[in-house]
Amino acid sequence: MPQSTPHTPATPQTLLERMVSVERHEVAALLASFTMFFALLSAYYIVRPVRDEMGVTVGKDAIHHLFSYVFLVMLAAVPLFGWIASRFPRRWVLPGVYLFFALNLTGFWVLLKSSGAGAAAAGAFFIWASVFNLFVISLFWSLMSELWSNDEAKRLYGFISAGGTAGALAGPLITQVLVRYLAPADLLLISAGLLIAALLASLVLRNVHAGGGSKGPVNGHETEPAGGGIFDGAAKVFASPYLGRIALYVFLANVIGTFFYMEQSRLVGVTISDSAERVKFFAGRDLVVSVVTLAIQIFGTAQVMQRLGVTAALVALPLMATAGTLALFYDPVLSVVAAVMAGERIAAFALSSPAIKVMYTLTAADEKYKVQNFIDTVVYRGGDALSGWVYAFVGTGMGFASGATALVAVPLVGLWIWTALGLGNAHAGRSADHQRSKSAAARAHGQ
After folding, report:
1. Does the domain formed by 21-438 have CATH 2.70.70.10?
2. How far is it, in rounded angstroms, from Cα 176 to Cα 406?
3. What Rg value do the Cα atoms of the chain yield, rounded?
């Protein structure tokens, strides 16, 4: 009688290797990356509904002014970050910035508990939160592009992004549960604790990657500053067609995204009168987005980028925005804008954002930090500021119902699609050049 082969129970590591195209020596660093992004996005998605409620408190007529103030703050903050990145070892830049923002959260908790959410305090928090989320997330991806190669990023960025989406799922759940027992300001302390957890995870990540990652100890230069001047990020964006295309893609994404955000704020303000109900609405929508995005990131993102190419992932978001623009033109109601923003964010988080981050794996060390930071902050919020003023001017208080907003948005999404196609081709060319250089270096080393 033939003997059956004993069944070996699957371990968490083997299950992960079946789910993700990950090599065994990459597992520890991959899990540390996942954990770090989970803690970071949990922290932000606790802050986000509070920020959105502050935006409603300030009023829809003042939001475009707030986006302009955010842009001005970014203009001041980016040179400061450039100075820090130029003079301090890269290993300590991210922990230092995260600690600074955790202390900021504690300070806002004291301010909001003592004075309440008046217009001034609400506006200040809205501006700060809009700066905070871009800086901490940009720094996370700077670290990722420093650690992971282009080929590794295509395989692993979907799963790493899923860590953030799981955090984006946990954040609204935590908010919806705790808002019943705590004041919104008290949630800021929970967010500060999670941000410290992300900081600690970054230190673990560097250590485990240095011990077993395929790129070695962060190219051997993690104790060196990024180098260059404090304005290098801006200068290189305008000097490099490749980086310029990334900047234009991000700029157009935020111009269109802010159109949708402003329309949502207008419709929420006229549809939902209770403050707590508005917070629950924002958190509930984020919960739906996170569930769908998580499934796509785990099972679909890597498949799309490896089989269909990075270009397909880049084009998905502007195509979704085109459909959303047309939908709001025909039926500008809260249910439609909620669906449009949900679809747009799913496409952004699951496909276009990981694809954009893959672009930076083929850049120099200072470009991974200073250029990426400039694009993720100044360019990103520049789109906010411009879009806010355009929306206020052409919307005439009616948003997409006026028809003028859609007439502005349609040609912009066309330009966005064209930019996505050009950027995908540019990345393919740069990737091919990189592979040829690696092959030539390997042959030379073998000789």
Report:
1. no
2. 34
3. 22
Q: Domain locations in the chain?
A: 21-438
Q: How far apart are CA 96 and CA 331, in angstroms?
A: 47
pLDDT tens, position by position, 332-363? 888 888 888 899 989 998 999 999 999 998 88
- Residue 320 burial (10 A CB sphere; 0-12, 13-18, 19+): buried
What span, in angstroms and rounded, lies between the C-alpha atoms of 141 and 145? Answer: 6
Residue type, 219: N
Residues shown for the chain: 447
**What 8-state DSSP symbol labels residue 419?**
H
CA-to-CA distance for 371 and 23, rounded, in angstroms? 30
- Residue the block writes with tokens 């159109």: 259
What gap in Å lies between CA 113 and CA 95, rounded to an integer? 27
Q: Are 262 and 387 in contact (CB under 8 A)?
A: yes
Distance CA 85, CA 3 (A): 63
Dig out the tokens for 428 from the structure.
């393919």
Q: Give the tens place of pLDDT for each residue, 189-201.
A: 999 999 999 999 9
Q: Rounded CA gap, 340 and 437, in Å?
A: 43
Sign, CA dihedral 272-276-279-280, equals negative
Cα–Cα distance between 107 and 125 in angstroms, integer? Answer: 11
Residue 220's pLDDT band (boundaries 50, 70, 90)? very low
Which token pair is 85?
Answer: 């990145």
Tokens in use for 42? 């949990």
Q: Packing angle between helix 241-271 and helix 334-347, nearest 10 degrees?
A: 150
Which tokens go with 75? 């203009």
